[in-house]
């Protein structure tokens, strides 16, 4: 610890304004800090106003458009976008208690989600002939998953960081193995019992039935989920603002100091773990009734990664950010399923990047003109010398696709060129940043052309499959570069 | 003004790390409302003594009693609940929490409302929350206007070094301790701030009613505040008594000089 109070770099920048007080007095630090807050532009202003709004208003800002969504969309879209976004949001909110608030790395989280779904399936499906009312089944599911959380947490609660991560990862994997095989456990007295349906899972799960009112249609389920998300948001915001929430944040900051300041660190970690598990279990019950089945494949590492991506994207500890993150992560891959949506998104992103990076505008215009000219020239040469390079048609039917046919090389048989184009593109992207500025300026149009070539001929063809996931990954990487703390997260400051 | 009842009592305390004996056969009694300073060269074992009292380390042998109650083996947060709070020499604030939140967080052990009640904001929970706010403001007001007003909502990382030291003390006060352990409260402060801290420690006893055990290198501060001074060297108590007696004790002089001699070599 430096004894002269040297803060992080941005705090020790020289105070230039005449209104800043003497150096070395703490008012100075405060004024620099104040400036930092002031200078974050439009987004900073919006965020500050946002923070001032009462909780209820903030929830409404999200809930209102979400409440209107079913009125403007089809049943299928409501299922695909609406239900999944809300399920993801609920899951991420629960994970946020464990990771964002308390700072524990929980890699077994999805197993609690699965526990909830299976438990509800056992209570309300033909599997055992149980058909419990939801008002009884949901509390039982929540308490059950909380107890499982307690059981997993008890032995691992003293473990920190890596150890906890391994322990929970093991639990997550063990859960999948268990539900895959729990159809032939033999119990004493009872004999063989099919607990989970094995790899076939449990089918025909009941819809929620609250005191005789059945949530059957997608729309009903959507509104149920929406209310659940709003409720969980409010409850968690209240916890966050209570002694428990402060204790969680304190132990995330510095467990040793927290312990010395009368905070029972182990107990609070366990509490966070159990709360996360209960939220996941609750979500699992809802997911079970939406999907009408509990399948072992639904609770694997892929979903865990998705939920972590939502939380990282939204910003650790920021609940609003998580809701926004859930919307992005669940809707972008769906939007990218068809080339009609994917193309504008792709070119929009590239255009945005160029607009932001290329200054002044004269250079921007020159590069774009260069790109257009390069394309026409290449197309002209190719159609004269190698007609096979241009004998295909661009995907789609609009004016843009028709235009592309006169500008972009679109061979009918791409297979031979595919590997070469990929390798050249990767090499170009690696080499490009190493070049001098002059060569960068000269080679930008060909590079962009190459990117578009690979996009139009290779990526867009497989847009329904791997491409959209690659694009989502690229989007997340780019966002993390621009804003490492997540969209709504607060930059985490350490003093060295 | 200092009572005769021993509030904090250490008997035959021993602690070794590997082969290194850091605290050896230490006896120490701190009476109610007393201010006792611990001095000694670097590495004498002063911070280790605090770590033992607060339960961060467990002594190899010996007793630590607060008001007659044995503290050895209790979890640190339990010891804090019983009335021993400390500051850290290296400053361990909750940096990404606001000034006020730092102080509020430390009231955890003093408050009761469970998570289920605060989740639905019962009237009781709201009442307690108000008290937490009030108490935090009260503790922060102890430092004049240094940590008041707009500072409440600033993040702890944005505070100056001196203010971070003050916030450490405020946070320790929020646990409502009977004994305050201050680890080099004046380290890194300029002369004016050092003077202020000297006065503050006096005020902590007069107005706050705390019993204070303080580690300090600055001899002006030690002279200004101490009822009694204890000198440690290699974990052994080499002198104890009034400031004048300890400061002129040949063994203390030797400990400090010996170190200096070794350093100049
Ligand atoms: N956890 C530990 N493991 C091993 N050795 C330790 C540990 N903690 C302290 N020590 C050693 O114990 C000795 C005493 O350390 P301590 O921090 O108590 O000294 P101090 O009197 O507070 O010194 P300073 O004035 O520099 O703060 C040092 O030699 C230190 O290296
Ligand atoms: Mg020390």
Structure description:
The complex is a heterodimer of chains A (496) and B (265). Chain A is mainly alpha-helical. Chain A has 2 domains: 49-337, ABC transporter involved in vitamin B12 uptake, BtuC; 341-463, no CATH class. Chain A is built from 19 helices and 6 strands. Chain A has helices at residues 26-38, 41-52, 55-72, 75-101, 109-123, 134-156, 161-181, 218-240, 243-253, 255-260, 265-291, 301-314, 319-335, 339-357, 361-385, 399-404, 415-431, 437-459, 463-482, and strands at 124-125, 130-131, 185-187, 191-193, 208-210, 213-215. In chain A, the strands form 3 sheets. Chain A has a two-stranded antiparallel ribbon with strand order 1-2. A two-stranded antiparallel ribbon of chain A has the order 3-4. In chain A, α12 (301-314) packs across α13 (319-335). The longest helix of chain A has 27 residues, at 75-101. In chain A, 37% of the residues are buried. Chain B has a single domain (6-264), classed as Rossmann fold. Chain B is α/β, with parallel strands linked by helices. The longest helix of chain B is centred in the middle third of the chain and has 18 residues, at 123-140. Chain B is globular, with a radius of gyration of 19 Å. Chain B is 39% helix and 23% strand. Chains A and B meet through α1, α8, α9, α10 and α11 of A and α2, α3, α4, α5 and α6 of B. Adenosine-5'-triphosphate binds at residues 17, 22, 40, 42-48, 89 of chain B.
Summarize the structure.
The complex is a heterodimer of chains A (about 500) and B (about 260). Chain A has helices at about 25-40, 40-50, 55-70, 75-100, 110-125, 135-155, 160-180, 220-240, 245-255, 255-260, 265-290, 300-315, 320-335, 340-355, 360-385, 400-405, 415-430, 435-460, 465-480, and strands spanning about 125, 130, 185, 190-195, 210, 215.
Topology of helices and strands:
The complex is a heterodimer of chains A (496) and B (265).
Chain A: H1 26-38, H2 41-52, H3 55-72, H4 75-101, H5 109-123, E1 124-125, E2 130-131, H6 134-156, H7 161-181, E3 185-187, E4 191-193, E5 208-210, E6 213-215, H8 218-240, H9 243-253, H10 255-260, H11 265-291, H12 301-314, H13 319-335, H14 339-357, H15 361-385, H16 399-404, H17 415-431, H18 437-459, H19 463-482
Antiparallel strand pairs in A: 1-2, 3-4, 5-6
Chain B: E1 6-17, E2 20-31, E3 35-39, H1 46-53, E4 61-66, E5 69-70, H2 76-82, E6 84-86, H3 99-105, H4 115-119, H5 123-140, H6 161-173, E7 179-183, H7 191-208, E8 211-215, H8 219-225, E9 228-233, E10 236-241, H9 243-247, H10 250-264
Parallel strand pairs in B: 3-8, 3-9, 6-7, 7-8
Antiparallel strand pairs in B: 1-2, 1-4, 4-5, 9-10
Bound molecules: adenosine-5'-triphosphate (ATP) and magnesium ion.
């Amino acid at each position: 610890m430096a004894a002269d109070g040297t803060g992080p770099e941005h705090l020790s920048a020289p105070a230039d304004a005449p209104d800043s007080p003497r150096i070395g007095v703490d008012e100075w630090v405060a004024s620099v800090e104040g400036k930092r807050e002031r200078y974050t532009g439009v987004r900073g202003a919006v965020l500050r106003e946002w923070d001032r709004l009462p909780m209820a208003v903030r929830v409404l800002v999200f809930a209102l458009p979400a409440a209107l969504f079913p009125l403007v969309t089809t049943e299928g879209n409501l299922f695909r976008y609406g239900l999944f976004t809300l399920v993801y949001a609920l899951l991420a909110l629960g994970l946020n208690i464990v990771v964002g608030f308390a700072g524990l790395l929980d890699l077994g989280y999805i197993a609690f989600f699965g526990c909830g779904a299976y438990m509800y399936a056992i209570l309300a499906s033909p599997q055992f002939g149980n058909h419990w009312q939801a008002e009884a089944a949901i509390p039982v599911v929540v308490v059950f998953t909380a107890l499982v959380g307690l059981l997993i947490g008890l032995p691992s609660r003293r473990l920190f960081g890596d150890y906890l991560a391994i322990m929970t990862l093991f639990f997550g994997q063990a859960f999948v193995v268990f539900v895959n095989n729990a159809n032939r456990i033999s119990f004493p007295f009872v004999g063989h019992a099919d607990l989970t349906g094995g790899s076939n899972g449990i089918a025909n799960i009941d819809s929620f039935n609250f005191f005789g009112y059945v949530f059957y249609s997608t729309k009903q389920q959507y509104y149920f989920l929406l209310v659940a998300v709003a409720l969980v948001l409010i409850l968690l915001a209240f916890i966050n603002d209570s002694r428990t929430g402060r204790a969680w944040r304190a132990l995330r900051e510095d467990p040793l100091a927290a312990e010395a300041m009368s905070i029972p660190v182990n107990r609070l970690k366990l509490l966070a773990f159990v709360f996360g598990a209960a939220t996941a279990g609750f979500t699992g019950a809802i997911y079970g009734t939406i999907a009408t089945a509990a399948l072992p494949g639904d609770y694997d590492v892929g979903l865990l990664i998705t939920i972590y991506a939502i939380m990282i994207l939204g910003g650790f500890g920021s609940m609003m950010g998580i809701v926004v993150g859930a919307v992005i992560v669940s809707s972008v891959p769906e939007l990218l399923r068809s080339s009609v949506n994917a193309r504008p998104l792709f070119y929009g992103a590239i255009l945005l990047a160029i607009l932001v990076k290329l200054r002044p505008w004269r250079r921007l215009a020159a590069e774009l003109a260069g790109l257009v000219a390069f394309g026409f020239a290449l197309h002209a040469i190719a159609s004269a010398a190698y007609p096979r390079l241009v004998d295909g048609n661009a995907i789609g039917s609009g004016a843009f696709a028709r235009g592309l046919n006169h500008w972009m090389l679109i061979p009918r048989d791409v297979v031979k060129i595919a590997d070469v184009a990929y390798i050249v593109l990767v090499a170009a992207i690696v080499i490009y940043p190493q070049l001098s500025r002059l060569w960068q300026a000269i080679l930008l149009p060909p590079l962009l052309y190459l990117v578009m070539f690979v996009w139009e001929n290779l990526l867009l063809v497989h847009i329904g499959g791997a491409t959209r996931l690659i694009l989502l990954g690229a989007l997340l990487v780019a966002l993390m570069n621009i804003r490492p703390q997540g969209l709504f997260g607060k930059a985490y400051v350490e003093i060295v | 003004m200092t009572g005769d009842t021993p509030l904090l009592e250490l008997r035959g305390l021993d602690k070794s790390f590997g082969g290194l004996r850091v605290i050896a056969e230490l006896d120490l009694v701190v009476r109610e409302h007393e201010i006792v300073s611990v001095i000694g060269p670097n590495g004498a074992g002063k911070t280790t003594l605090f770590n033992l009292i607060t339960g961060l380390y467990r002594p190899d042998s010996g007793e630590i009693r607060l008001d007659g109650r044995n503290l050895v083996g209790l979890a640190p947060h339990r010891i804090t609940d019983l009335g021993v709070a400390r500051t850290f020499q290296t400053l361990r604030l909750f940096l990404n929490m606001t000034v006020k939140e730092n102080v509020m967080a430390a009231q955890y052990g003093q408050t009761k409302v469970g998570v289920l009640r605060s989740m639905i904001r019962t009237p009781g929970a709201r009442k307690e929350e108000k008290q937490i706010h009030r108490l935090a403001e009260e503790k922060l007001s102890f430092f004049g206007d240094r940590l008041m007003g707009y500072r409440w909502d600033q993040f702890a990382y944005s505070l100056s070094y001196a203010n971070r030291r003050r916030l450490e003390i405020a946070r320790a006060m929020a646990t409502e301790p009977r004994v305050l352990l201050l680890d080099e409260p004046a380290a890194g402060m300029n002369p004016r701030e050092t003077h202020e801290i000297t006065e503050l420690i006096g005020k902590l006893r007069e107005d706050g009613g705390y019993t204070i055990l303080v580690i300090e290198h600055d001899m002006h501060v030690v002279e200004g505040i101490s009822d009694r001074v204890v000198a440690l060297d290699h974990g052994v108590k080499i002198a104890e008594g009034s400031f004048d007696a300890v400061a002129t004790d040949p063994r203390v002089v030797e400990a400090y000089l010996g170190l200096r001699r070794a350093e100049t070599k």
